[in-house]
């Protein structure tokens, strides 16, 4: 065999080894942490779950409405439906329709299960795939990105205060009218009632950077801690799990008189992203 033949064989062997490495290289796993407290409530109405498929990882958090009966049941149904529907996806091109479909199915399932009794829930769902964040939200639970010691708030709160703020910007009411309205924190959209409107969906996926932490939390978290307190913990904790546990511990230690259920989910991949 001539030198050219040997050279060709070497190239073929190297190509084969490279292809095997590409096929066998495991997908990076996200680090996921969570924490939860019942607070001063009689029942834990928050519910959450995470799941990973070949498409990506989803985190879902629902805050059952404590002022209505069956808050726990509503939040559980909503989260379960989102996880089940996500497991059926085969392409990221289906993500937007997934959020819309899962929210409609959740709403119908809750109404059917409750059979006329009142119940409802907020929901936030975050999908992380190929270094991007896809999301959907209903109600006043929040999705945030913690990046470079600062927070990026991803979704809006679907409460009356948001409508009042728009009216203020349009000079229809005064700033004091916004501040004094006793119903400003009332939900104007949630899952589990006939008047459900739609889910807020991110129009474009958000690129995640190295070190980003994607945070899902119920209002029992952000109403009990300042962003400064949360930022300190997120920056100092060794892992998303430690950060979530520390945040809940701080909330419990405050012993606030009307402490709501509080739930937080933190997702991070220190090696993923574009920064």
TrEMBL record:
<dbReference type="GO" id="GO:0004722">
    <property type="term" value="F:protein serine/threonine phosphatase activity"/>
</dbReference>
<dbReference type="Pfam" id="PF13672">
    <property type="entry name" value="PP2C_2"/>
</dbReference>
<dbReference type="InterPro" id="IPR001932">
    <property type="entry name" value="PPM-type_phosphatase-like_dom"/>
</dbReference>
<dbReference type="InterPro" id="IPR036457">
    <property type="entry name" value="PPM-type-like_dom_sf"/>
</dbReference>
<keyword id="KW-0378">Hydrolase</keyword>
<protein>
    <submittedName>
        <fullName>Serine/threonine phosphatase stp</fullName>
        <ecNumber>3.1.3.16</ecNumber>
    </submittedName>
</protein>
């Amino acid at each position: 065999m001539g030198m050219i033949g040997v050279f060709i064989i070497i190239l073929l062997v190297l190509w084969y080894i490279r292809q095997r490495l590409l096929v066998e290289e495991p997908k990076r796993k996200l680090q996921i942490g969570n924490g939860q407290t019942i607070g001063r409530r009689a029942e834990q109405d928050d519910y959450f779950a995470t799941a990973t498929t070949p498409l990506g990882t989803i985190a879902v958090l629902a805050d059952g409405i404590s002022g209505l009966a069956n808050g726990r049941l509503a939040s559980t149904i909503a989260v379960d439906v989102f996880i089940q529907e996500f497991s059926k996806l085969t392409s990221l091109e289906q993500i937007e329709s997934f959020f819309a479909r899962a929210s409609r199915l959740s709403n119908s399932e809750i109404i059917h299960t409750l059979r006329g009794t009142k119940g409802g829930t907020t929901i936030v769902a975050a999908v992380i795939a190929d270094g991007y964040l896809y999301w959907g939200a209903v109600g006043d639970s929040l999705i945030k990105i913690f990046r470079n010691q600062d927070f990026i708030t991803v979704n809006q709160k679907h409460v009356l205060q948001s409508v009042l703020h728009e009216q203020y910007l349009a000079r229809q009411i005064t700033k004091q009218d916004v501040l004094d309205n006793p119903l400003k924190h009332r939900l104007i959209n949630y899952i589990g009632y006939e008047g459900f409107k739609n889910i807020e969906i991110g129009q474009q996926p958000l690129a995640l950077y190295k070190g980003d932490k994607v945070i899902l939390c119920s209002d029992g978290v952000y109403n009990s801690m300042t962003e400064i307190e949360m930022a300190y913990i997120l920056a100092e904790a060794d892992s998303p799990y430690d950060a979530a546990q520390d945040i809940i511990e701080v909330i419990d230690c405050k012993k606030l008189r009307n402490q709501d259920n509080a739930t937080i989910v933190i997702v991070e991949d220190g090696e993923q992203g574009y920064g």
